[in-house]
Amino acid sequence: MKKIGITPEQFLEAISSFEGAAGRLQKIKEYAATSVYKDFAHAPSKAKATVKALKEIAPSRDLVAVFELHTFSSLNKKFIPQYKDSMKAAQQQIDTSTRQNESQGNGGPHGRRHPQGVAAPGLLVFQDSTTLENFLLQQSWKNKNLLFMSSGQFGGLDIPALADKLQVS
Predict the structure, then answer these.
(1) Is residue 55 part of a domain?
(2) Is the residue at 6 inside a domain?
(3) Which of 169, 119, 125, 164 is nearest to 144 (CA)?
(4) Cα dihedral 10, 15, 16, 18 sign
(5) Which residues form the domain of 61?
(6) Using the 8-state DSSP alphabet, how is residue 155 labeled?
(7) pTM: predicted TM-score of the whole model, two decimal places
(8) Cα gap 126→96, rounded to integer Å
(9) CATH number, domain with residue 67
(10) Which of 52, 80, 101, 164 is the most exposed, fewest CB within 10 Å of its CB?
């Protein structure tokens, strides 16, 4: 603390009100048996750490992890295999990488097609935010947490508005 010119008392006062880095594991909405989170996770190691952290926070709840490969580096065919098992701790894994899907011409409203190295059993791939939102709104969210991870905007999906509409009973 001496190196940055503050006293221990100043540090303790400042840290007590620190809310964390913007965009990192933000709780968007909390219900009795469901919480919705958003995280600025875009690298494989960050996605894996975020999923693991949420499972540690609520081990008795299922975790639905929605991931958007957004940056051009993350969509690089040489980089994609690094995502293998990054969401392994989630009970449901969903990809909504619209840039990738648009550039590769993947078909269908949601399917099982995903680049080798990322594909996981049961992985759902959504082409657009409207289809993803409709799917999520049809699910029961009792005893489940919902996690959105991206450095992008999920195709314009309004996550707080979606969180307000979830069926949580």
Answers:
(1) yes
(2) no
(3) 169
(4) positive
(5) 21-165
(6) G
(7) 0.75
(8) 5
(9) 3.90.190.20
(10) 164
